[in-house]
Predict the 3D structure of the following.
Amino acid sequence: MKEAELREVCKCILCGNKIMHDGLPLFWRVRVERYGLKADAIGRQQGLSVLIGHAQLAQVMGPDEDMAEKFFSIEVTICETCGSERSLSAAALAEVGDTEAPKPKPKSGVQKLPGVIEEDEE
Ligand SMILES: [Zn+2]
């Protein structure tokens, strides 16, 4: 990680302090991704499996389509103290990280979603 990137990610999303505030030269970068299963694709694959009578054969003969779709992905920084002492669910971590992460500017004509907070330019 180069200096510019380190400067962008140097703040812990849980305590708000900069990394190394506890004196330890370690920190965490955690990626939280949320997926939804595609019931229609799973149903098709399962149907093919039943029709052929063998799951692994159906896997090779099927369309090999995506069975899950990514809804959300965020990468957050956590200081060494919070990373070793705090306990947080993946959903809570994603929520905290989402409010800290800069949002992409909406394109013209795109409605702003409720709850999305725009950060001021510094
Ligand atoms: Zn922290």
User: Anything to note?
Assistant: The longest helix spans residues 39-52. The two ends are 23 Å apart (CA to CA). The chain has one domain: 3-101.
